[in-house]
Amino acid sequence: MKMKYIVPFVLIILIGCKQNDDDTDACEDILVPFTSLEAEYGCTNTPYETEINLDDTYTVIRSQEVFDALVSGTCLPTIDFGAYDLIIGKRGLRTGNISISYELIENCETNVLTLTVTFLQNETLESPNLTYHVLTTKIADVDGLEIEIIETN
């Protein structure tokens, strides 16, 4: 009679252990801190006043020499490229822009960085070609960077 109670008890323990193993193997994506030319160097209105010759794409700038060669505009600071990489891109939009927000996530399993750039749009017929950017700590694998563009009203 005691045997009837032992088997279900052992199964419950084994199932519980299996669930705990799954939980310990799971990882969480990492929210990566970043800053901007506005915050670090006092630049203003960079979406409109910073220019780079790109068309709906991005690049990663890792040195002052490359920055000076590719970027023009009203604010051209000396960036601390020993500490930062500059992810910078252009996006042509069909309507007017209210704001741009950013989120930089590192996938815990693949180590791929994804920069999500969200353009909050309005209903005006203005069609701006905006520059977006973030300054982030040095990126180990630039090829492991993905950009996700979201346009929302």
Description:
- The protein has 153 residues and is of the alpha+beta class.
- Helix content is 26%, strand content 39%.
- It has helices spanning 2-25, 37-41, 46-49, 64-70, and strands at residues 30-31, 34-35, 50-52, 58-61, 71-73, 84-92, 97-106, 113-121, 129-137, 145-152.
- The longest helix has 24 residues, at 2-25.
- The protein is globular and about 50 Å long.
Low-confidence sequence ranges: 5-21
Distance between the termini: 68 Å
The major pleated sheet works out as: 4 strands, mixed
How many strand units?
Answer: 10
Strand share of the residues? 35-45%
Task: Estimate percent helicity.
Answer: 25-40%
Number of helices: 4
Please provide the ordered H/E string of secondary-structure elements: HEEHHEEHEEEEEE
In round numbers, the mean pLDDT is: 88
Which class of secondary structure composition applies to the elements? alpha+beta
Strand order of the largest sheet: 1-7-8-10
What is Rg?
23 Å
Shape: globular
Keywords:
26% helix; alpha+beta; 10 strands; four-stranded antiparallel beta sheet; 39% strand; 153 residues; four-stranded mixed beta sheet
Sequence-ordered SSE layout with sheet pairings:
Elements: H1 2-25, E1 30-31, E2 34-35, H2 37-41, H3 46-49, E3 50-52, E4 58-61, H4 64-70, E5 71-73, E6 84-92, E7 97-106, E8 113-121, E9 129-137, E10 145-152
Parallel strand pairs: 8-10
Antiparallel strand pairs: 1-7, 2-9, 3-5, 4-6, 6-9, 7-8
Short description:
This protein is α+β, with helices and mostly antiparallel strands. Helix content is 26%, strand content 39%. A hairpin with a 6-residue loop joins strand 7 (97-106) and strand 8 (113-121).
